[in-house]
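Table S2 (continued). Query chain:
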Amino acid sequence: MNKKLLSLTVLVGLTISAYAQKGKNEVQLSGQVGFPTGQLADVAKTGYGFAAKGMYGFSLRKQQVTLEAGYNRFQVDVLPGGIDGYYSAIPIYTGYRYTIGGFHLEPQAGISINRVAGSSGAASASSTKTNFAWATSVSYSLKSVELGLRYQSSEMKDSEEGLTFVGIRLAYNLSL
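Corresponding output:
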């Protein structure tokens, strides 16, 4: 985990130092519908999420370094009657965004604070873990509105599978 944290710190440091060069700076607010894949698809229904992202241009080319935080939630659907449960994730990513025409390509890496919670009547239980996470997306902008497709994965320690999903994202970009 320390190597991952060091890599994340270096990437954020590069973002700050690159800020001195002229580029396009934006803030993005987005919502998404998430379709579970892999292990998550076996236990959860379609979910939803939202995020806020800062995008800092660092050259005259159409490229940006990004910092994003969000929230995603999936209802668990394989529990016996009377028990309610959900999976939620708070991803915090840094990334690199490159624009070709109106299309944007963006790989990201960081951490995800993952939580599984359940309740039955007055009793409840939950477990929260922080894991390495990554995402990659492709999107298209028409003026300030952006529509995208995103794959997101959160690695689970001591597990062969991660918690993964595909999201369809609608976003609004605000120029700074």
